Amino acid sequence: MESALYERLDGTLAGLRSDIGAAECHGMLCGMLCGPGRFNRDLWLHHMSGQDDIEAYQSEAATVVFADLESQTVKGMESETFEFSLLLPDDDSDLALRVEALSAWCRGFLSGLGASGLSDLGSLGVDAREFVTDLERFRALTLGGDDSGDEQAFVELTEFARMGALIVYAERNNGQEPGESTLH
Are 138 and 102 in contact (CB under 8 A)? Predict the structure, then answer.
């Protein structure tokens, strides 16, 4: 996804005095899109805001940003050419900021998956279940001591999260039976 959307979303959330940033918001959206049943925008807004009153989140300016995020995310997840990407700070941003954002995206994904009604990992196929279990560990990512390896590790973890989200999305939206493997 484009860095301009990240900046717009982060600015919108800051203006709403949200407790979450753009990466965690996107993770929540992805998790909810991967959950059982149809996506419910109001549930996403309630979950994202942490409040019962979501009126500010439904302002015209916020609605445009959230609709763009939802549209681009769904388009990417449904793309046959794997266009989906995580909404994270651009590659020119400090690595520590990008690692923190990836960690927040993982928290958001897990939170959104739970908010969407997925309460039993056993309802997921093997690969999706393993991905969600691995994502639990990624919620607390930090930089190691080896700067040269950190950038490569970040790229690999980001790709793992991207592909894992696509696996869960495809499984939940293609009616795969729980327990079936999606990777070969």
Answer: yes
Angle at 33 between CA 177 and CA 14, to 5 degrees: 155
CA Rg value for the chain: 16
Mean pLDDT by 10 residues, the chain (184 residues): 88 94 97 91 91 88 96 94 93 92 95 90 89 86 66 92 95 57 38
Taking the C-alpha atoms of residue 33 and residue 27, their distance in angstroms, rounded to an integer, is 10
Alpha helices per DSSP H over the chain: 3-15, 22-33, 41-49, 60-78, 95-115, 126-138, 147-174
Residue 36: CB partners within 8 Å, gap ≥ 6?
116, 117, 118, 123, 172
How far, in Å, CA of 129 to CA of 176, rounded? Answer: 13
Confidence (pLDDT) at 147? 62
SS3 of residue 70 by DSSP: helix
CA-based nearest residue to 110, from 14, 11, 29 = 29
Closest Cα partner for 109 from 6, 32, 18? 32
Query: Hey, what amino acid is at 130?
Result: E
Phi, psi of 43, rounded to the nearest 5 degrees: -65, -40
